User: Fold Chorismate synthase from Limosilactobacillus alvi.
Amino acid sequence: MTFTYLTAGESHGPQLTGIIEGIPAGLTLDVDQINAALADRQRGYGRGNRQKIEHDQVEILGGVRHGVTLGSPITLVIHNRDHAHWSAIMDPTAPATPENTTRKVTRPRPGHADLVGGLKYRHNDMRNVLERSSARETAMRVAIGNVCEQLLAALDIQIVGYVRQIGPVPAEQPLKSVAEIKAVTAANDLRITDPDKVDTIHQLIDDTRGAGDTLGGLIKVIAENVPVGLGSYVSWDTKLDAKIAGAVMGINAMKGVAIGDGFEAATRPGSQVMDPIAFDQKTGYHRLSDHLGGFEGGMTNGMPLVVNAAMKPIPTLYKALQTVDVQTKEVMKANVERSDTTAIVPAALVVENVVAIELAKAILEAFEGDNLARLQDQVKAWRMEMNQ
Ligand SMILES: Cc1cc2nc3c(=O)[nH]c(=O)nc-3n(C[C@H](O)[C@H](O)[C@H](O)COP(=O)(O)O)c2cc1C
Ligand SMILES: C=C(O[C@@H]1CC(C(=O)O)=C[C@@H](OP(=O)(O)O)[C@H]1O)C(=O)O
Assistant:
């Protein structure tokens, strides 16, 4: 069974819906863990007031019985509490009237999907674009990603995402293990590994908000104990690093993805970039460093996967930039919707979850995945073979 997933739903519509196909039967799903991830996505300094309205909770409506997956498609729902304030404007079936189209958007925000989305789909009200282009949808990707993280955990694979830099301020301490990073980043509201930078960054975010401006930043995801040999070198579209890069770029506001030392590796000689190979009777092959972020030839090499992402600043500016009104073609200030000053903190979790989805997918492509116990046996046997 091929692993696939789909999400649907508008930001201020009634709900987000997700369907996942291909999760093995026999996985005990911890709903509290999904909800904890959803709560985690809502936290973070610099977010707007929408997060005070939402208390994201997942409802599982298919594919799971008595807490255990059935092997059939899994249906997930997250209700938008804010819909209560938008029920007429976002009514899926009531015909449009002057009363329920009052929040029409005609002044596209530079950097958001408004203008091109409106032109492409012939929407003269760009609310029809922003409702779906909104990163509200990433709540469902986190729910789906958490199901995948629970599958990965059943295969002893751990993953974490954190913030390396916010705007111009780096905030990274070199911590090695996923467990260590989780402990340090959970203890601050910026998901950073250098807690000494918290006050400086809070100030930066406050000042930026005060100036009507926004911030982006850098994110890193690390996955540990990933089996050797996921993905393949044989064709361009079988390379797992490429699939991960594509999935990360598919997250709202991402402008760059790099594996391991990434762009920086291009500046050093090969001797400082390639990871020397060693062998140990007990644990098999390993590398003496991890500059290449766990990938060679598009395949995992058993070292921790390291995926970096660059997020642009939030496009909606309270001090709005110039735009053109699509009705009058007059130069105006762009539309201002309620907005985050920075969303780098939730975005780190979104990137983590999207990488988890791609890893789960790669495993389910490599092994027969109808049943979890059988999958676990195959992965165990595979790991032994790769270590010989
Ligand atoms: C978690 C998260 C929250 C976001 N919040 C906002 C926001 O409040 N306002 C905004 O204009 N953009 C926000 N964005 C970014 C936009 O969704 C994104 O820039 C837009 O969809 C255009 O897509 P692109 O930046 O990938 O080109 C957010 C992105 C993420 C990942
Ligand atoms: C709703 C979420 O993020 C939203 C993403 C977003 C955008 O344009 O991407 C714009 C804002 O929407 P609103 O105007 O409703 O506040 C954010 O709050 C969320 O992350 O749950």
